[in-house]
Known about the structure:
The chain has helices spanning 21-24, 42-54, 80-100, 112-120, 122-135, 148-155, 189-202, 229-242, and strands at residues 2-9, 30-34, 58-62, 105-108, 140-144, 159-165, 204-206, 212-214, 219-223, 246-247.
Amino acid sequence: MKLNLNADLGESFGAWTMGDDAALLPIVDSANIACGFHAGDPKVMRDTVRAAIASDTSIGAHPAYPDLQGFGRRPMRMAPAELEATIIYQLAALAGMARTDGGMLTHVKPHGALNNQACEDPALAKCVARSVRDFDRDLILLAPARSALVQAGEEAGLLVACEIFADRAYTDEGYLVPRSQPGAVLHNPAVCIDHVRRMLDAGGIVSHHGKTLASPIHSICVHGDNPDAVDMARALRAALTADGHLFAPLPEMV
Length: 254
């Protein structure tokens, strides 16, 4: 298969460092860059954009709820018009950073609670997809496989790439196991490789109980804030390459 490996990056803020973006960028094909609402700041955004351009890594926006203290992982309720403006604001900021340095925004991947809630709530998913379409209908929506967000993106006329997570366990319904539960986050690279191989072989999500839910798979995510992210991404790419898979930036996947 042709696959894409992506990571959530640019999540440092001020004097606080999150992840090892410099080590991850040469390994992944696409970077989802924080836009300042859950993490990141203007300088971090620009530095990450520049590093992505230098690594020939496709650039995506990683918009979130306005929740810097909670790292965007706390569920929120916002009026649709307010949420749409919040998302567009973030896309515009990152697109401007990219354009200034000769790059371009290629995709959008919502972050944290916004992403998780949009997977299950069709109305929220439509709000997210509408925001992306209204900003730039040529952007790719990177959405969790089998989610309401995939359907909303397709209905909005967007190109949609279906994503699985290398470092997260799934429920039998195809959602991510909540981080508060044991085993929700996978840290061992060998375990993550086996997890991804099972899903690629099965042609869809495989839950922690072994249930298979069929879906296209275009991209695999490694969370940049995972302390094992660099070793995991490197090992995963090497293993899947040895299996005969090819890797490409997200625009080549859809």
